[in-house]
Amino acid sequence: LLTSKSEAVSDLNELLCRTTKLLYADSSNDQRFCGFDWFTSIIFLIFRGDIDAAWKFLKTFFYLKSSSYVWMKRLDGKPLKEKFNLHPVYTKICHYIEMLLEKELPYVYSAFYMADYPVSSICLLWFRQSFLNYLDWPEIVCYITGSVVIKLDYPIYFCLAIFNHLQSDIILHRQTGNLVKYLRSCTLSKFRVANYIDFIKSLSKRYSFFILKDLSDL
Fold first, then answer.
1. How far is CA 11 from CA 16, 18, 52, 207, in A?
2. Enclosing domain of residue 23
3. Are residues 31 and 97 in the same domain?
4. Under a CB-based contact definition with an 8 Å cutoff, are residues 39 and 15 in contact?
5. Structurally, how many domains does the chain consist of?
6. For residue 80, what pLDDT is reported?
7. Are 171 and 107 in contact (CB under 8 A)?
8. What is the pLDDT of residue 81?
9. Phi/psi of residue 27, each to 5°?
10. Which residues of the chain have pLDDT under 50?
11. Are residues 38 and 146 in the same domain?
């Protein structure tokens, strides 16, 4: 994806510094580092190391409502975050993932329940890293672009498509007692979102009307 490693590292560090200033512009909090910004790094890679193009995109995306659900660092240091005890990705996105999982994929939901492992735990791990180290690169790009250009609830249906893909493995590893270890370490190299477009569209058609109303209230 990148031509010069040393130059790319320098440019990425510069981009991360810029986004940190943007994220904390309205904050009086001096403790600025709260974890690595995976989303910014992936945007940098999507733009093939073009720091100016990546920065232009991030500055624009920062003001879109969808950024609060896709860019996990987006609400850091912002007064908006004070409305929540927890990040809205947890209180809204993960809430709806679990709710729809129970309705649409009850065996998967039961496997999580019987393993005493919250669905939100693995979803938050995926979201924090923007699926890096889990999905193949083309699927990560599909997730990012879909979350940017489609509706606010796209990440919900994207995760449900992954659970649909993993259904048999989740049930199997629940039976063998290592579901948590499997989910935290497994790669999703065989997952292709193109194979689940109809599934995603079906979910959106049935649930978007009330989910979007809630997600828009941020």
1. 9, 11, 10, 41
2. 5-63
3. no
4. no
5. 2
6. 47
7. yes
8. 44
9. -105, 145
10. 30, 80-82
11. no
